[in-house]
């Protein structure tokens, strides 16, 4: 237990209120701590659970029509260039990979002729080649369309003659993929320029491809324990209840004694302990507080003497004694008062008889009464014990 007179004074003044407040605070803090343990913090986040992926590649295929570098009937696939003396037809083969067999796929293949100047298109013409909805087999939808390379070259020559050198002419193959996976539906287009000469033809990209991805999002709820909050309130609750228990053990405390102890500690450098004789000084001036006695000591450069037996604080200056006590006047601090009439059990005075004078009790005056020897027995142990 902490020995601090200030705490004692605080407890003496507001002890009951403090105990109740600390107890309530402790109970509430422990309740909050329990709630924090039982109710962890939850956060909901969006996470990618899976990704739907749809991709399309456009392959090429040609069959050798006459013997030469290759034997007739040889199948050429995805070559960077094809010779016109070997084959005059190329087959475009779009293949789309989808995530489920229930998906639907469509392929729209067109051939577009463009006239450009300074990288700006000022004329174009689109020729539809095919529009198919192939069946999905093993996750792949396949379609195909033949392109007559000779007719493409003739159309390019015709457009160039019309332009008469004003711009350049290109042929572009466009494959649009339309799909519906059941959860996502969209479309995208793959384009590649066809290069054609009298001796060969090719695609700028031998196997052009593209894809679309669709992340599948899910809501995930995560729980995180409120460890710090629970620990903090548990600590506060424990300290509060311990404080309430400690203050309860200090009670009851006399406020006057606690205040005097505070003053004693505050003015300890001016107070000395000792014994103050009853006969000291001719004039005795009672002061209201211990602070007043200390002020006198400071003003007179004297020290305060604390007579613990008499409960007296006094400053002696010449023949004047300035003092403070909670027992009353100077004379009342000499020794405890004793009521012999009530405790000794002696005979009461006759009815109407005046009480004995103080001088008779103390032996001062004309002398003891004649019957004193019979009233007080020197061998009476009870009388001596009370004295």
Overall 3D form: rod-shaped
Number of strands: 18
The helix/strand series, from N terminus to C terminus, equals HEEEEEEEEEHEEEEHHEEHEEEHHHH
Describe the main β-sheet briefly. 7 strands, antiparallel
- Number of helical stretches of at least 4 residues: 9
**What is the name of the CATH class of the largest domain?**
Mainly Beta
* Protein structure class: alpha+beta
Q: Which range best describes the helical content: under 10%, 10-25%, 25-40%, 40-55%, 55-70% or over 70%? A: 25-40%
Total domain modules: 4
Q: Would you give an account of this structure?
A:
Strands 1, 2, 4, 7, 8, 9 and 13 form a 7-stranded antiparallel sheet that branches. A 6-stranded antiparallel sheet has the order 3-12-11-10-5-6, covered by helices on one side. The chain has 4 domains: 66 residues; 162 residues, Immunoglobulin-like (Sandwich), CATH 2.60.40; 67 residues, no CATH class; 47 residues, no CATH class. The chain is rod-shaped and about 150 Å long. The longest helix has 34 residues. The chain is 30% helix and 36% strand. The two termini are 39 Å apart. With 387 residues, it is α+β, with helices and mostly antiparallel strands. Strand 7 and strand 8 form a beta hairpin.
């Amino acid at each position: 237990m902490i020995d601090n007179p200030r705490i004692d004074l605080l407890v003496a003044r507001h002890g009951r209120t403090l105990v109740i407040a600390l107890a309530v605070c402790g109970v509430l803090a422990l309740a909050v701590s329990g709630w924090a343990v039982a109710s962890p913090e939850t956060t909901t986040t969006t996470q990618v659970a899976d990704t739907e992926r749809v991709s399309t590649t456009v392959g090429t295929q040609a069959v050798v029509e006459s013997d030469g570098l290759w034997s007739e009937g040889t199948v050429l696939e995805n070559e960077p260039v094809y010779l016109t003396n070997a084959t005059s037809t190329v087959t475009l083969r779009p293949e789309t990979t989808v995530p489920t067999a229930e998906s639907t796929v469509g392929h729209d293949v067109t051939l577009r002729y463009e006239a450009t100047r300074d990288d700006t298109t000022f004329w174009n013409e689109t020729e539809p080649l095919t529009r198919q909805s192939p069946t999905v087999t093993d996750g792949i939808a396949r379609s195909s369309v033949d392109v007559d390379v000779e007719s493409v070259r003739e159309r390019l020559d015709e457009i160039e003659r019309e332009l008469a050198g004003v711009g350049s002419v290109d042929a572009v193959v466009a494959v649009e993929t339309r799909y519906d996976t059941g959860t996502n539906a969209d479309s995208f287009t793959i384009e590649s320029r066809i290069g054609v000469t009298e001796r060969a033809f090719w695609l700028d990209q031998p196997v052009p491809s593209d894809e679309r991805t669709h992340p599948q999002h899910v809501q995930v709820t995560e729980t995180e324990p409120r460890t710090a909050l629970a620990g903090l309130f548990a600590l506060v609750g424990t300290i509060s209840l311990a404080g309430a228990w400690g203050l309860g053990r200090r009670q009851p405390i006399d406020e006057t004694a606690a205040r005097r102890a505070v003053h004693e500690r505050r003015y300890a450098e001016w107070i000395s302990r000792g014994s103050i004789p009853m006969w000291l000084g001719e004039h005795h001036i009672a002061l209201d507080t211990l602070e007043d006695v200390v002020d006198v000591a400071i003003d007179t450069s004297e020290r305060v003497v604390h007579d613990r037996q008499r409960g007296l604080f006094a400053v002696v200056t010449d023949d004047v004694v300035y003092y403070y006590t909670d027992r009353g006047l100077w004379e009342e601090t000499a020794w405890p008062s004793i009521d012999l009439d009530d405790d000794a059990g002696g005979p009461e005075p006759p009815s109407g008889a005046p009480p004995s004078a103080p001088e008779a009790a103390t032996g001062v005056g004309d002398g003891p009464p004649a019957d004193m020897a019979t009233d007080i027995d020197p061998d009476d142990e009870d009388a001596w014990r009370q004295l």
